[in-house]
Structure prediction request, 261 residues.
Amino acid sequence: MNPLLNIAISAARRAGDIIIRHVGRIDRLTIKVKERNDFASQVDRLAEDEIISTIRKAHPDHAILAEESGAQGSDDEFQWIIDPLDGTTNFLHGFPVFCVSIALRHRGRLEHGVIYDPMRQELFTSSRGEGAQVDGRRMRVTSLKTLEGALIGTGFPFREKHNLDLYLQMFEAVVRKAAGVRRPGSAALDLAYVAAGRMDGFWEMGLKPWDMAAGVLMIQECGGLVGHFDGSPGFPDDGNILAGGEKIYQALAEEFKPMLG
Ligand code: 2AM
Ligand code: CA
Prediction:
């Protein structure tokens, strides 16, 4: 196995262990919102420090872009893109859907991606040109051709509420056409599920690079498409991501296009 992918796997597992040690340590009935958020950011920090020190031990010269500590180093050679705990709100509630996401970009191109679900101990891995695996088994995106029968994942807008009107239009269209819509609450894990064909498509607004990077590579390596709401391809730098098996991606883009200004 590629040594860089191995480092990502080892870092993700270590971070997952830290997260699991803290699950359920918060008493929702007595603790104040502020204290809960502090607790979450402490766990995020611990997990992120573990990931960064694992990487730094092997590659002190590599750049890092991480949710908690931000950007260190330049992104023109190797850059690790890290979300130490994706699905923090779920984690805080003991709702068992969250993950660690780590990607490695080289000269702007995604090379490796790892998403680890510490509750199920499921490991999703991908390297460019090598496909993607869940616990070593080859993953494939859906081959479904129409929204009828499709299970579509999404996330609700949380930051810019002015997007809510557009989002609700999209939501209505998908609810009317698809077999089901799910909102699990961890965008990175959702993207891994699209790669695995567990969901046929996915869209969400306002995501950050660390929510998406590893999952984007996985979906592409599994034959799926990733891009913008209008169906144009490419990494969604604006944070508005559309993803899915080829036909489902196109069908969602056809629904969304008339809604976009
Ligand atoms: P996070 O848990 O790492 O913050 C869910 O819609 C997705 O949005 C998750 O990947 C979550 O990542 C991200 N997100 C970022 N900020 C959020 C917020 N304030 N509330 C809910 N989700 C948020
Ligand atoms: Ca995240």
Summary: The pocket of adenosine-2'-monophosphate (ligand 1) is lined by residues 67, 83, 86-89, 155, 158, 185-187, 204, 211 (CB under 6 Å).
